[in-house]
Specification:
It is a single chain. By secondary structure, the chain is an alpha/beta fold. The chain has two domains: 129 residues, Rossmann fold (3-Layer(aba) Sandwich); 107 residues, 3-Layer(aba) Sandwich (Rossmann fold), CATH 3.40.50.1000. The chain is built from ten helices and 16 strands. Helix 1 runs parallel beside helix 10, helix 3 runs parallel beside helix 4 and helix 5 crosses helix 6. The longest helix is centred in the middle third of the chain and has 12 residues. The radius of gyration is 18 Å and the shape is globular.
Length: 273
Protein backbone atom coordinates (compact mmCIF):
# COMPACT_ATOMS: atom_id res chain seq x y z
CA UNK A 1 0.00 0.00 0.00
CA UNK A 2 1.41 3.34 -1.08
CA UNK A 3 -0.09 6.63 0.08
CA UNK A 4 -3.09 4.76 1.42
CA UNK A 5 -3.83 2.97 -1.86
CA UNK A 6 -2.80 -0.43 -3.20
CA UNK A 7 -3.09 0.01 -7.01
CA UNK A 8 -3.25 -2.46 -9.89
CA UNK A 9 -5.32 -1.38 -12.92
CA UNK A 10 -5.85 2.31 -13.73
CA UNK A 11 -8.70 4.26 -12.20
CA UNK A 12 -8.74 6.36 -15.35
CA UNK A 13 -10.42 3.41 -17.11
CA UNK A 14 -13.48 3.55 -14.83
CA UNK A 15 -16.47 5.23 -16.48
CA UNK A 16 -19.18 4.00 -14.10
CA UNK A 17 -19.19 3.57 -10.33
CA UNK A 18 -21.52 1.67 -8.00
CA UNK A 19 -21.13 3.02 -4.47
CA UNK A 20 -22.12 1.28 -1.25
CA UNK A 21 -23.29 3.65 1.48
CA UNK A 22 -23.08 2.23 5.03
CA UNK A 23 -19.42 2.13 6.03
CA UNK A 24 -18.38 3.98 2.87
CA UNK A 25 -20.14 7.36 2.90
CA UNK A 26 -21.21 7.28 6.54
CA UNK A 27 -21.47 5.20 9.70
CA UNK A 28 -24.78 5.48 11.52
CA UNK A 29 -25.77 9.13 11.11
CA UNK A 30 -22.23 10.48 10.83
CA UNK A 31 -20.62 11.22 7.46
CA UNK A 32 -17.20 9.71 6.93
CA UNK A 33 -14.27 11.97 6.14
CA UNK A 34 -14.09 13.05 2.52
CA UNK A 35 -17.53 11.65 1.60
CA UNK A 36 -19.13 14.91 0.43
CA UNK A 37 -16.00 15.89 -1.51
CA UNK A 38 -15.86 12.46 -3.16
CA UNK A 39 -19.49 12.62 -4.30
CA UNK A 40 -18.83 16.09 -5.71
CA UNK A 41 -15.70 14.77 -7.46
CA UNK A 42 -17.64 11.92 -9.11
CA UNK A 43 -20.34 14.32 -10.25
CA UNK A 44 -18.04 17.03 -11.61
CA UNK A 45 -15.86 14.47 -13.41
CA UNK A 46 -18.91 13.07 -15.19
CA UNK A 47 -18.47 9.58 -13.77
CA UNK A 48 -21.77 7.72 -14.19
CA UNK A 49 -22.70 6.59 -10.70
CA UNK A 50 -25.37 4.90 -8.61
CA UNK A 51 -25.49 4.43 -4.86
CA UNK A 52 -26.34 0.77 -4.28
CA UNK A 53 -27.10 -0.13 -0.68
CA UNK A 54 -28.20 -3.39 0.93
CA UNK A 55 -30.09 -1.30 3.51
CA UNK A 56 -33.84 -1.62 2.90
CA UNK A 57 -35.04 0.46 5.87
CA UNK A 58 -35.24 3.77 3.96
CA UNK A 59 -36.63 4.73 0.57
CA UNK A 60 -34.41 6.48 -2.02
CA UNK A 61 -36.19 9.74 -1.15
CA UNK A 62 -35.40 9.26 2.55
CA UNK A 63 -31.77 8.43 1.75
CA UNK A 64 -31.62 11.59 -0.37
CA UNK A 65 -32.71 13.63 2.64
CA UNK A 66 -30.29 11.87 5.00
CA UNK A 67 -27.36 12.40 2.64
CA UNK A 68 -28.29 16.05 2.14
CA UNK A 69 -28.09 16.51 5.91
CA UNK A 70 -24.50 15.25 5.67
CA UNK A 71 -23.61 17.63 2.85
CA UNK A 72 -24.03 15.14 -0.04
CA UNK A 73 -26.41 16.13 -2.82
CA UNK A 74 -27.55 12.88 -4.47
CA UNK A 75 -30.86 12.74 -6.39
CA UNK A 76 -33.22 9.88 -5.40
CA UNK A 77 -32.93 8.40 -8.89
CA UNK A 78 -29.21 7.87 -8.19
CA UNK A 79 -30.00 5.62 -5.20
CA UNK A 80 -30.96 1.93 -5.38
CA UNK A 81 -31.79 0.12 -2.15
CA UNK A 82 -32.12 -3.62 -1.73
CA UNK A 83 -35.81 -2.94 -1.15
CA UNK A 84 -36.14 -1.30 -4.57
CA UNK A 85 -34.22 -4.17 -6.19
CA UNK A 86 -36.26 -6.82 -4.36
CA UNK A 87 -39.58 -5.26 -5.38
CA UNK A 88 -38.37 -4.97 -8.99
CA UNK A 89 -37.31 -8.61 -9.00
CA UNK A 90 -40.55 -9.84 -7.44
CA UNK A 91 -42.53 -7.92 -10.07
CA UNK A 92 -40.93 -10.21 -12.68
CA UNK A 93 -42.09 -13.29 -10.78
CA UNK A 94 -45.63 -12.52 -9.59
CA UNK A 95 -48.56 -10.30 -10.68
CA UNK A 96 -49.92 -7.29 -8.78
CA UNK A 97 -52.27 -8.36 -6.02
CA UNK A 98 -50.04 -11.23 -4.89
CA UNK A 99 -49.90 -11.48 -1.12
CA UNK A 100 -46.49 -10.97 0.48
CA UNK A 101 -45.50 -11.34 4.12
CA UNK A 102 -42.76 -8.89 5.08
CA UNK A 103 -40.22 -9.03 7.85
CA UNK A 104 -38.93 -5.51 7.41
CA UNK A 105 -39.68 -1.87 7.90
CA UNK A 106 -42.03 0.64 6.28
CA UNK A 107 -39.67 1.49 3.40
CA UNK A 108 -39.56 -2.13 2.21
CA UNK A 109 -43.34 -2.43 2.45
CA UNK A 110 -43.65 0.84 0.52
CA UNK A 111 -41.52 -0.43 -2.37
CA UNK A 112 -43.53 -3.65 -2.60
CA UNK A 113 -46.86 -1.84 -2.45
CA UNK A 114 -45.69 0.51 -5.22
CA UNK A 115 -45.45 -2.61 -7.40
CA UNK A 116 -48.99 -3.64 -6.51
CA UNK A 117 -48.26 -6.33 -3.95
CA UNK A 118 -50.60 -6.81 -1.00
CA UNK A 119 -49.32 -7.35 2.52
CA UNK A 120 -50.40 -10.68 4.02
CA UNK A 121 -49.85 -13.13 6.83
CA UNK A 122 -49.19 -16.85 6.98
CA UNK A 123 -51.27 -17.42 3.83
CA UNK A 124 -48.88 -15.32 1.70
CA UNK A 125 -47.25 -16.72 -1.44
CA UNK A 126 -43.97 -14.94 -0.70
CA UNK A 127 -42.02 -14.01 2.42
CA UNK A 128 -39.65 -11.07 1.97
CA UNK A 129 -37.22 -10.53 4.84
CA UNK A 130 -34.80 -7.64 5.29
CA UNK A 131 -33.25 -5.60 8.06
CA UNK A 132 -35.88 -4.86 10.69
CA UNK A 133 -35.09 -2.76 13.74
CA UNK A 134 -38.69 -3.33 14.93
CA UNK A 135 -38.35 -7.11 14.79
CA UNK A 136 -40.72 -9.08 17.03
CA UNK A 137 -41.27 -12.74 17.77
CA UNK A 138 -44.69 -12.50 16.09
CA UNK A 139 -43.07 -11.32 12.84
CA UNK A 140 -40.64 -14.24 12.89
CA UNK A 141 -43.40 -16.70 13.78
CA UNK A 142 -45.73 -15.55 10.98
CA UNK A 143 -42.94 -15.66 8.41
CA UNK A 144 -41.91 -19.11 9.63
CA UNK A 145 -45.46 -20.43 9.28
CA UNK A 146 -45.79 -18.96 5.78
CA UNK A 147 -42.50 -20.50 4.61
CA UNK A 148 -43.38 -23.86 6.15
CA UNK A 149 -46.71 -23.67 4.28
CA UNK A 150 -44.87 -23.28 0.97
CA UNK A 151 -44.28 -19.53 0.56
CA UNK A 152 -41.19 -18.61 -1.48
CA UNK A 153 -38.54 -17.15 0.86
CA UNK A 154 -36.74 -14.04 -0.44
CA UNK A 155 -34.06 -12.07 1.41
CA UNK A 156 -33.24 -8.47 0.57
CA UNK A 157 -29.59 -8.96 1.51
CA UNK A 158 -27.27 -11.22 3.54
CA UNK A 159 -25.39 -8.60 5.63
CA UNK A 160 -25.03 -10.23 9.05
CA UNK A 161 -24.04 -6.95 10.72
CA UNK A 162 -24.50 -3.20 10.38
CA UNK A 163 -21.85 -0.59 11.27
CA UNK A 164 -22.80 2.30 13.57
CA UNK A 165 -20.49 5.16 14.55
CA UNK A 166 -18.73 3.12 17.24
CA UNK A 167 -20.46 -0.26 17.22
CA UNK A 168 -21.44 -3.15 14.98
CA UNK A 169 -24.98 -4.50 15.42
CA UNK A 170 -27.06 -7.32 13.84
CA UNK A 171 -28.09 -6.84 10.24
CA UNK A 172 -30.54 -8.44 7.82
CA UNK A 173 -28.45 -11.59 7.51
CA UNK A 174 -28.95 -12.30 11.20
CA UNK A 175 -32.72 -12.19 10.66
CA UNK A 176 -32.45 -14.46 7.63
CA UNK A 177 -30.42 -16.88 9.74
CA UNK A 178 -33.18 -17.08 12.33
CA UNK A 179 -35.75 -17.91 9.65
CA UNK A 180 -33.46 -20.49 8.06
CA UNK A 181 -33.01 -22.13 11.47
CA UNK A 182 -36.78 -22.24 11.97
CA UNK A 183 -37.70 -23.51 8.49
CA UNK A 184 -34.67 -25.34 7.04
CA UNK A 185 -35.28 -23.27 3.88
CA UNK A 186 -32.56 -21.08 2.35
CA UNK A 187 -33.73 -17.76 0.89
CA UNK A 188 -33.22 -16.43 -2.61
CA UNK A 189 -31.15 -13.30 -1.92
CA UNK A 190 -31.49 -10.25 -4.17
CA UNK A 191 -28.89 -7.85 -2.76
CA UNK A 192 -25.10 -7.99 -2.91
CA UNK A 193 -23.24 -10.32 -3.38
CA UNK A 194 -25.95 -11.95 -5.48
CA UNK A 195 -26.12 -10.78 -9.11
CA UNK A 196 -29.71 -9.52 -9.27
CA UNK A 197 -29.26 -6.10 -7.67
CA UNK A 198 -26.00 -5.38 -9.51
CA UNK A 199 -27.51 -6.43 -12.85
CA UNK A 200 -30.38 -4.01 -12.22
CA UNK A 201 -27.86 -1.30 -11.31
CA UNK A 202 -25.90 -1.80 -14.54
CA UNK A 203 -29.14 -1.68 -16.55
CA UNK A 204 -30.14 1.52 -14.75
CA UNK A 205 -26.85 3.18 -15.72
CA UNK A 206 -26.65 1.65 -19.18
CA UNK A 207 -23.17 0.56 -18.13
CA UNK A 208 -20.84 -2.18 -19.34
CA UNK A 209 -19.22 -4.30 -16.60
CA UNK A 210 -15.69 -3.85 -17.97
CA UNK A 211 -15.94 -0.05 -17.53
CA UNK A 212 -17.56 -0.22 -14.10
CA UNK A 213 -16.23 -0.47 -10.55
CA UNK A 214 -17.97 -1.12 -7.26
CA UNK A 215 -16.85 0.73 -4.14
CA UNK A 216 -17.65 -0.91 -0.81
CA UNK A 217 -16.43 -1.88 2.63
CA UNK A 218 -17.38 -5.58 2.78
CA UNK A 219 -15.47 -8.38 1.11
CA UNK A 220 -18.34 -10.87 1.35
CA UNK A 221 -20.96 -8.58 -0.24
CA UNK A 222 -19.60 -5.57 -2.16
CA UNK A 223 -16.33 -7.08 -3.37
CA UNK A 224 -17.60 -10.60 -3.99
CA UNK A 225 -20.69 -9.24 -5.72
CA UNK A 226 -18.60 -7.00 -7.95
CA UNK A 227 -16.31 -9.86 -8.88
CA UNK A 228 -19.26 -12.08 -9.73
CA UNK A 229 -20.64 -9.32 -11.95
CA UNK A 230 -17.32 -8.80 -13.76
CA UNK A 231 -16.65 -5.38 -12.22
CA UNK A 232 -13.47 -3.79 -10.94
CA UNK A 233 -13.52 -3.65 -7.14
CA UNK A 234 -12.48 -0.94 -4.68
CA UNK A 235 -12.53 -1.61 -0.93
CA UNK A 236 -12.45 1.20 1.61
CA UNK A 237 -11.21 0.53 5.14
CA UNK A 238 -13.78 2.69 6.95
CA UNK A 239 -16.39 -0.03 7.41
CA UNK A 240 -16.39 -3.76 8.16
CA UNK A 241 -13.55 -5.59 6.36
CA UNK A 242 -9.89 -4.98 7.19
CA UNK A 243 -6.73 -4.65 5.12
CA UNK A 244 -5.46 -7.98 6.46
CA UNK A 245 -8.69 -9.70 5.45
CA UNK A 246 -8.48 -8.15 1.98
CA UNK A 247 -4.89 -9.33 1.53
CA UNK A 248 -5.86 -12.88 2.55
CA UNK A 249 -8.99 -12.95 0.39
CA UNK A 250 -8.88 -15.59 -2.40
CA UNK A 251 -9.32 -12.84 -5.03
CA UNK A 252 -8.29 -9.53 -3.42
CA UNK A 253 -9.94 -6.27 -4.46
CA UNK A 254 -8.35 -4.36 -7.35
CA UNK A 255 -7.80 -1.41 -5.00
CA UNK A 256 -7.71 -1.17 -1.22
CA UNK A 257 -8.04 2.40 0.08
CA UNK A 258 -7.72 3.73 3.58
CA UNK A 259 -10.50 6.27 3.06
CA UNK A 260 -12.32 8.29 0.39
CA UNK A 261 -9.74 11.09 0.49
CA UNK A 262 -7.03 8.61 -0.50
CA UNK A 263 -9.23 7.25 -3.28
CA UNK A 264 -10.05 10.69 -4.64
CA UNK A 265 -6.38 11.69 -4.62
CA UNK A 266 -5.36 8.54 -6.48
CA UNK A 267 -8.18 8.95 -8.99
CA UNK A 268 -7.25 12.57 -9.68
CA UNK A 269 -3.64 11.52 -10.22
CA UNK A 270 -4.76 8.76 -12.61
CA UNK A 271 -6.77 11.32 -14.59
CA UNK A 272 -3.74 13.60 -14.77
CA UNK A 273 -5.07 16.49 -12.69
Amino acid sequence: MTGGVCMQPSLAQIRNLLVDMDGVLYRGRSALGGAAAFIAFVQTRGINYLLVTNNSTLTPEQFHERLAGMGMQVPPERIMTSGVATAAYLATQAPPGTRVNVVGEAALIHELEKRGFVMGGRESRYVVAGWDKTLTFDKLATATLAIRAGATFIGTNPDKTYPLENDIIPGAGSILAALVAATDVEPLVVGKPEPLALQLALQHLGARPEETAILGDRLETDILGGQRAGLKTIMVLTGISTAAEAAAYPTPPDWVVTDLLALQTAWEQALGS
